[in-house]
Every structure is written in structure tokens, then in C-alpha cells.
Amino acid sequence: MPHLGRRLAAVTAALAISVTTGAVSPAVATNQHEGDERHTGKNPTATGYGGAVSTVDPEASAAAIDVLRHGGNAVDAAVAAAATLGVTEPYSAGIGGGGYFVYYDAKSGKVSTIDGRETAPAGIKHDAFIDPATGKPYPFTPELVTSGVSVGVPGTPATWERALERWGKFSLKKALEPAIEVADRGFVVDDTFRQQTADNQKRFAAFTSTKDLYLHDGKLPEVGSVFKNPDLADTYRLLADKGMGAFYNGPLAEEVAKTVQNPPKSKDTTLPVPKGSMTTEDLADYEALDQDPTHVNYRGYDVYGMAPSSSGGTTVGESLNILDVFDLPALKADQPAVLHHYLEASALAFADRAKYVGDPAFVKVPTKALTDSIFGKERACELDPNHAATKPVQAGNVSSYDGTCPAKPAALADEKDTENISTTNMTVSDKWGNVVEYTLTIEQTGGSGMVVPGRGFLLNNELTDFSTVYSATDPNRIEPGKRPRSSMSPTILLEDGKPFLALGSPGGSTIITTVLQTIVNRIDLGMSTPDAIAAPRASQRNTASVTAEPAFIDKYGQALTSRFGHTLTPSGDSFTSASEIGAATAIEFLEDGRTLAAAEPVRRGGGSAVVVKPSK
């Protein structure tokens, strides 16, 4: 079989337009441009046969398609794409982070999942996020996120290895070939990469290793230049040769632990950079977990998602169970009315998320109740079809429900959201009908800001997903060995046992609402999958106002405010001032046997959808 890495440049060229960029030194990751030709470009929609992929990045999509064209299956292609995203989208994903992997097996018709969420070190303290100098919580950004104490034990390497062991055809070595090729030859810097580097300039400058890689000679990478990461290529080669055991044991594990315990601070940084407690024992003890998916039925579709430690499957599932009580397809001519129901159902489900969901190894999570259609029917009693409820709404009673309208339970305080938007998602299918929906992240844009010296990858800041202040009654309180609650929501819908739609998104806690709104758009409002993704978004997470993209406010704001009493606030990430909500990817499986891959046409600069054999 031809070397996959050598094929990748040709595949990328076939997918995209060319941009003039330049030669760079192979010794360090640089950003110059003088004469070499590289290829870039994105197509948000593709229809055809033989397998499909949708990601945020053309290099990652090219890697996945190359694997599919050379006999690999959806799992092999997903790992190849994820590893490539670690090169080209390093501020959103990489081996220093974690994620959730959902897989549909065509032969058995079964949906399975892997929980690759990061874990807290054994030595973490309940007051880890409290500044000893003040006795108050560290400011979330940039202080807490830029630290060793925010780093969880990475789960992504173990997830890749476990997925390939269970379902893959390729070896890890073969699956990593495309990413190694891209890291060696470099990728073209776009506006998003430069802007994200600029947004993180102060944080990156706080660490010698990060400054050397991403702020070469103290400068931001230029748009159109070529960015190489030979250190990451060498790290991937190590893992390809030795397996993922080389990440969790040995010299690399020692270097990861050392970076967390003694961050490589620059002499001139003013950031406090609290030290973490992660040890080599924490790394050696990490395990990616096999677990059953969540499952609900929505208007005849079987909807499978990610069970806790993610809150995605329970919250999307509960929301759908609430909405299933109402005949929304009959209202599709009145889009504001449908969107009102969506927003109110989401608030109810988020109230239950806050009260009940955490790591099931530490908290008794009522997953069965939260995804029970009878519980959803009872929660629907709280949804007024004509008026928005005052937020925060109250949590339901999972210990006693029968589907009838109950007396109101005690109110629950509003939940503070500390999940960051910087994550990435991919959707992959193959010619055998297998499907992967995979969401992975390093949390903050740029993670903790710390590159492991000489290894070419950033470490996550996922522990900031724990509640900042410890409470013995909080299901998401900090505890040693625990997985922080996540909102990642990789989701697969089946119709009569066969794939109908697979989708997911980045976006912190707005991941849940992005996936939910896309499902409502597709099934209840009858939009095509590309239109369902492109439609303007809003997110209600049991807060006083609805966070909404400006386009959503322009289109629906007056009706939702005057008719239903919603308060809408323009979206904007406090770290980057981005106004976008989510960046979804999806594949729909058409009745004629074709697959329709869809990505964002605009958000995050647009996504990249590709099929193995395009339709004529």
C-alpha cells in the first residue's frame, strides 16, 4: 500500500486552491514565506459514496479521506483526522487533551462509546482554585486557565489507542502517518490561526516553550506562511513506534508531569501560573473507559449520545423528551414558536444537569431517569407554550415522577458556566456503513498555554470545568481522580436501526444547545442538514437571558421578545469576543445510499466536508 503521508499532499491539492507561501527551517516551527506552494480551501458540503468526512480543517479532512481510500475504516480515519487536527488546530485539540468517541458498528447495529475525558490528579486539593495570597478564587482568565493546576491527565492518546483496538483496521503507526506528514511539511496559516495566536499572545509569552513554538522571534505567524512543528512530528513518531504506553510511562510522561509541577515560565511574565500536582503515577493510572451510550427516541428516531461524565447525552436527550410532548412539526410555519419551545426545554434540562450530573464514579447520576420519556413528559408540564419562564427554572424530582404535572420543587441557583468554546468535532463514515462522531478538546483556546518543552503540544486546562468553589453538595466539585463534567455531545441518530444523522460541535456548554437546535432544525423545521447547520443560533442554559448570535437576534429577536417574553443578549466569548456559537459537523445518510457531509459555511472560517466518491 502506498505511504499514506506521501499521498496526503496530493489529496489536499485535489480538494483545494493553492496559496503562495514559503520555505521554512526544518529545525524549528517557524512562519516565513518566500516561495513554496501549499494548498488550502474548504467546501462545507459534499455528497457521494464510499465514505465521508466533515471537520473544521481541510488537512484533517484530507487525512481522513486518504485513509478511507486506502482501505481504512471510519475509526482509522477519525484517528488520522484527530491527529492531524493536533497539528493544524493545536489551540483546540491535541494529545494534551481529552474527548468523547461515539461509534456505530454497521455489522452489529450497535452504538458504543469511549470516555476519554481528562482526570484530576490524585494530589489535587479541594481549594486548588483558591489563591492562597487572597483566600479568594483565582480570576478565571488569564490566571486560572494559564496554570499547572488547571491541567487534567490527558485522555486523547488512550482514546485513540482504545478505539483502534476495538474497531480499527489500521495500526496506530499507520493512522498517525498523515499527521506526521503535515507536521513535517507544514500547513498554511490562515486568519483564524493568526487571530487565535494573537488572542493568546500574553499567555503564550508566559512560557519559554510556547513562545519558542508559536511566537517565533517574538512575532505572530503571518497569514499565508507555512507553519511546521517538527517536535510534534517526532512525538507522533515515538507514539507510532512505541504505542501510547510511551505517553503514559517513561521519559515523555516524566516531561509532562514536570511541566505541570514546574511550568516553564518566562522571566518577564507577570502571570502567577499556579503549579499543579500531576505525577507520573497519575499518567500511568489513566484509563479510557468503555461505556454504554445514552438513548432516547425522538419522533421515531433513536438518538444516541454520550453518558456522564459528559452531560451532553443526558441534557440533549432530556430536552428532546420534553419537546416530544409538543407537535412542533405542525408549527414549523411559525419558526419563533418552535424556537421558543426549544429554548424553554433547554433551560429545564440544564436545571437538571446542574443539580444531578457529574462523574458517575463519584456521584450517583440518575442517567436513566434523566433520559426517561416519562420524566421528560413531567418536565414538559413546566413549559408554557406561550410565555418564557423566569430563569433560573427549578430542577425536577428524579426520585418521584409519573408523567403528571407535579407541585413545584425547590428552586435551584443559576449555574456559572466556566466551560470554554475551544473544542473541535468531526464526523466520519466509511463504505461499510460504520460511523464515528468524535469531539475532542484542550478546553480554553490554547489550553493551559503550556507546551511540553521539545514535544510540540499544548497541555489542557480541563480542570477549570470543575466548579471553582468547592461544595460538598455540588456534583461537579473537585475531587482527586475525578473527571470534570463536560458538555461535549457527539450524537448519532438511527432510523429503523440504520444511521440517519450524525453530528456534534465545539462550544463549551453551548455544544448541547447547538446539537439540540440542529436536530430541531432538521427534524421539526424540515431544514436540510446544511441549512440546519448554517441557521443562526441561540443558547438558553437556564440563565436570565438567551445568548444569541447577532443574526438570530435580527431574524427572531422581536418575535421572541414581544410574543414570548424572552430576553436576548448578543453572544461573545469573554476571551476572544467571538460572536459565533458552535462549529458543527454532520453527515446525513440519504435514502438513495449516498451520504451528505456538511460543515459550517462561515463559522470558524468554514469547515471542510469531503466524500470518497463524489456524486455526478
What's the helix and strand layout?
Elements: H1 4-15, E1 17-20, E2 31-32, E3 37-40, E4 45-55, H2 58-69, H3 74-88, E5 98-105, E6 110-116, E7 130-131, E8 136-137, H4 140-144, H5 156-167, H6 172-185, E9 187-188, H7 191-199, H8 201-205, H9 208-214, E10 226-227, H10 230-242, H11 245-248, H12 251-261, H13 280-284, E11 289-291, E12 294-298, E13 301-305, H14 312-323, H15 335-356, H16 367-370, H17 373-379, E14 423-430, E15 435-441, E16 491-495, E17 498-504, H18 510-524, H19 529-534, E18 538-539, E19 546-548, H20 550-562, E20 568-570, E21 585-589, E22 595-599, E23 608-614
Parallel strand pairs: 19-20
Antiparallel strand pairs: 1-3, 2-10, 4-14, 4-22, 4-23, 5-6, 5-15, 6-11, 7-8, 9-10, 12-13, 13-16, 14-15, 16-17, 17-21, 18-19, 21-22
In total, how many domains does the architecture comprise? 1
Count every beta strand, where a strand is a DSSP E run of 2 or more residues: 23
- Uncertain segments are 9-39, 410-416
Largest sheet: 13 strands, antiparallel
Going by CATH, the architecture would be: 4-Layer Sandwich
Choose one word for the global shape.
Answer: globular
Share in β-strands: 15-25%
- CATH evolutionary superfamily: Gamma-glutamyltranspeptidase, small (S) subunit
CATH class, please? Alpha Beta
Description:
By secondary structure, this protein is of the alpha+beta class. It has a single domain, classed as Gamma-glutamyltranspeptidase, small (S) subunit (Glutamine Phosphoribosylpyrophosphate, subunit 1, domain 1), CATH 3.60.20. 33% of the residues lie in helices and 18% in strands. The strands form 5 sheets. Strands 4, 5, 6, 11, 12, 13, 14, 15, 16, 17, 21, 22 and 23 form a 13-stranded antiparallel sheet that branches. It has a 3-stranded antiparallel sheet with strand order 2-10-9. Strands 18-19-20 form a 3-stranded mixed sheet.
